[in-house]
Amino acid sequence: MRCDILETPLDLEPLIAAVRGPERGALVTFVGYVRERADDGRLVEGLSYEAHRDLALAEMRAIGAEVAAKFEGALIAISHRTGALGLGEAAVAIAAASAHRAAAFDACEYAIDELKKRVPIWKKEHYLGGGGRWRENE
Predict the structure, then answer these.
(1) In whole angstroms, what is the distance from residue 47 CA to residue 84 CA?
(2) 63, 69, 64, 74: which is closest to 100 by C-alpha?
(3) Which of 72, 70, 114, 74 is closest to 92 using CA atoms?
(4) Residue 7 belongs to what H/E stretch?
(5) Domains identified in the chain and CATH numbers
(6) Comparing C-alpha atoms, which of 106, 44, 115 is closest to residue 78?
(7) How crowded is residue 120: how many other Cβ atoms within 10 Å of its Cβ?
(8) Cα separation of 42 and 38, whole Å?
(9) Are 123 and 66 in contact (CB under 8 A)?
(10) Hey, is 92 helix, strand or coil?
(11) Is the entire prediction scored with pTM above 0.90?
């Protein structure tokens, strides 16, 4: 399983390569991008992410082990950005593969949901016109 925390732009291709194999016929990807509006409707000019790197990577690996156990041996790869990101930049990318499509979809959804709940990565929204706010993990 591949897990990365990067300060450089994310690339989905290495994640796909990490999970593909002749025994896995289904592949699902997810990419989360910085969007222009916060959940409360305010315009956003960018985000900042900080992480406790060692703990975050350990938790990402734990999620990967859970995915393999829960979803027919599915395999995932995850990359998450840290630092300052502008509108349209990728913040998180996940590739999930399994023998069948249902398990690949379920594995990908489980991975992003658990990542947002458990992994010590924190997000700050920077609002157009000034100000910002750290967001709670879900």
Answers:
(1) 6
(2) 74
(3) 114
(4) none
(5) 2-34+52-121 (3.90.1170.40)
(6) 115
(7) 15
(8) 5
(9) no
(10) strand
(11) yes
Instruction: Give the pair of three-digit tokens for residue 23.
Output: 């025994």
Residue carrying the six token digits 């990419």: 31
Radius of gyration of the chain (CA): 15
Question: Can you read off the two tokens belonging to residue 124?
Answer: 């700050």
> Which amino acid type is present at position 22?
P
Tokens of 75: 């395999």
What's the CA gap between 74 and 99, in Å, rounded?
7
Q: Token digits for 112?
A: 């992003």
The answer to whether residue 35 scores a pLDDT higher than 90 is yes
Tens digit of each residue's pLDDT (9 = 90 or more) over 40-99? 999 999 999 999 999 999 999 999 999 999 998 899 999 999 999 999 999 999 999 999
How many Å from the N-terminal Cα to the C-terminal Cα in the chain? Answer: 24
Indicate the residue type of 129.
Answer: G
| Residues across the chain | 138
- Pure H helices in 9-120: 12-19, 53-70, 101-118
Q: Which helix (H) or strand (E) holds 126?
A: strand 121-127
